[in-house]
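User: Please predict structures.

Assistant: First:
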Amino acid sequence: MSTISRQQPASVSTAAAARSHRTAELFDSTAHVTPRSRKQILDELVVINIPVADSLASRYAARGIPVDDLVQVARLALIKAVRNFRTEMGGDFLSYAVPCIRGELRRHFRDAGWMVRPPRRVQEAEYRVNDGKATLAQALGRDPSPAEIAAEVGLDEATVLEVLSLDGCFTPDSLDKTLPSGDTGTSSLADRLGTVEDGYDHSETRAVLAPLLARLGDRDRLVVKLRFVDGLTQREVGERIGVTQMQVSRILSRILDQLRDGLGDAEELRAA
């Protein structure tokens, strides 16, 4: 752990001390009370310590989960901690409650927070890095460097850098995000996406149809070429091969049925 001094403002320290003292008093008073009175005391304990739960929830803000959801998770964890804390075991309530709340927040993120799920090792390091980053930022009055965070949480700097690059795993960048674009000013992320290349589909179609077309007679292949490659109308095709438009329509219908049957046979062979 880092040896950086973490002096809190006097008002914050005073409020925390008062809350801790009142919390201890209330827990002590639950020893000999009726169940109804105990419930009222536990409710007051929750209210007194809600700022602690909310503060822990705020450390996980802006990571892809609504703050209201995080606050709800943290407060429910606080309620559970208040109910489960045993005064006879000794110790300070917050020393017990804070890890419980943090654990619930981490579980919530593990289950619902990742848009792109990184390795478990990196997920676990992420919690430590962000806790250490928040603590150092408060103590230093600025964003800590990766080296300072690494020293604080006991991880190597490479792991810290890997964790700090995970923001997009929680909240992907919008396609409307503005990006620098050299001399032309700015562009959006969507502007840099590739376009659909129709040529690939055409090539695949030709590859599939080629052996089927090879089975057709010379006149049928000519009809297909004139109609679908050269783009002639049925009347124009009929003039070229010396038949009526109605006959061309029948020829095309027969050819298309043959091609459909051939495609069906090919699919069955691939599936076999």
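Second:
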Amino acid sequence: MDGKCVLLLALSIAAFSTDAAVYKCADGVYQAEPCDDESEPLDLSNVGSSVANTTALSDSSSAQKEQISTYVRNKKIARQIAELERDRKQVIKSRDKELAHLRERGQWANNNLAGATWQQSLAQEMTAVTQQADTQVTSIDRQISSLRYEMKQ
């Protein structure tokens, strides 16, 4: 019952406000009743309603949302690229460290058959480490390239 009363009251206020006339008095005051016999109601029909402005706001709001969405997407991609570049540097640093360690171990090889075999084994390990690092770097480079292409679109 209370809901019906509130609804009826709201409708009556809305109906009153749409039918109300506005008069401008000589002293610059605006009021709902005529100031004198020569007062005429102002034509406020060109003032636009809040409903009409909502669509304009909606269009600009959706454009702004699109800009924000694009900005956020680009920032996310930029963070991913930065992370991949850090990973790439880490892979290269790890490769260089492992190669230096293997070279250091090669200095202990003797000038005999066992030493030569051991040096050959170390050279194979160095090749494997280099190939593994190159594969990882190539994969990271492809991911970075893909993300940069995605960012441009």
